[in-house]
Amino acid sequence: MTDDPNRPKTTDEAGELPAPDERGAPPTPESQAAAAPKAPSGSSDTGTTTPAATSETSVAAPGGEEKTETAEEKKARLVAEAKARAAAAKEAAAAKAAGGGAAAAGAPSAGAAAGAPKPPVKKKDEGPKPEDASENALVKRLRASLPDAVLEATTFLGQLSMRVATASVVEVCRTLRGDAETPFDYLCDVTCVHLPERTEAPFDVVYNLYSIRGNARVRLKAAADESTGVESVTVVWPAANWMEREVYDLFGVTFRNHPDLRRLLLPSDWEGHPLRKEYPLHFVENNWTTKHLPEFTDVQREQLEQRRAYGLEFLSVPEERQIRDIFRAGREVMPLDRK
Known about the structure:
By secondary structure, this protein is of the alpha+beta class. About 35% of the residues lie in helices and about 15% in strands. It contains 11 helices and 10 strands. The chain has helices spanning about 10-15, 30-35, 70-100, 100-105, 110-115, 135-145, 170-175, 240-250, 285-290, 300-310, 315-330; strands spanning about 55-60, 65-70, 130, 150-155, 160-165, 185-195, 205-210, 215-225, 230, 255. The strands form 3 sheets. A 6-stranded mixed beta sheet has the order 3-4-5-8-7-6. A two-stranded antiparallel sheet has the order 1-2. The chain starts with 10 loop residues before the first helix and ends in a 10-residue tail after the last helix.
């Protein structure tokens, strides 16, 4: 083999120790270290890679070769990549808003998909609203008989409602009961609604009617105040007697020409009407409680509140009197368990 001084030496040739000199002296440690191959920076003699003590890092070049970059170069590269991703996201959002581009075609890039805005939340559909029912056949027949009686007619979820003049309540009910096609011969209910903001007529008396033969329903509404009230419909449906008494008891609306208008659920001398909006929800002391219920001591009141909390107190008058008879006799309402 020809000895070329420019030919790179192999590993075996580089690792061979120098031959001893002519005098036969053994190799020195310095000569062995100079002849041994040097390990690259960042590696150890055991084969494991260790970080190099330098600020330079190796990155893959486009041609497959590795090149080193400093910390400043790495920072500049990362900033440039972040700016490129932000610009791609903005372009994708603009293309989606305009209806074109790669995002509209369904093939956005990874950066564009990550930065694309979320679609807007779909609003809930509005609920049903009352519709005008002036063209309803029943409304037309009623207006033909009583031109000034029907003030408004609407339908809501298939339910027909008519607001009628307060002075024409009895005539409207009598006409609907004798209707040829759908005779409303059954009075389902008479109730009331309190509207305090409507000062001139703060109550709506509501009549729910049903036609057995025609299988149809209709709701009537008539505005009323406390003093004047409305005319009683007991002359049309006798079953309205107790229904109107209940409205009078709980709302205070009077019914003119009622055969026996008095309270139905509460004592006759009770003050106030519990279903009005201004009536308090908690227990109140009034003239009736002062007159009919004896004075409670603090202990007796606490015992009664405990019984009511556990559902042990009846709310009817005889049981209330029985409890107070026990108090007057000096007996224990809740006797102790221990002896």
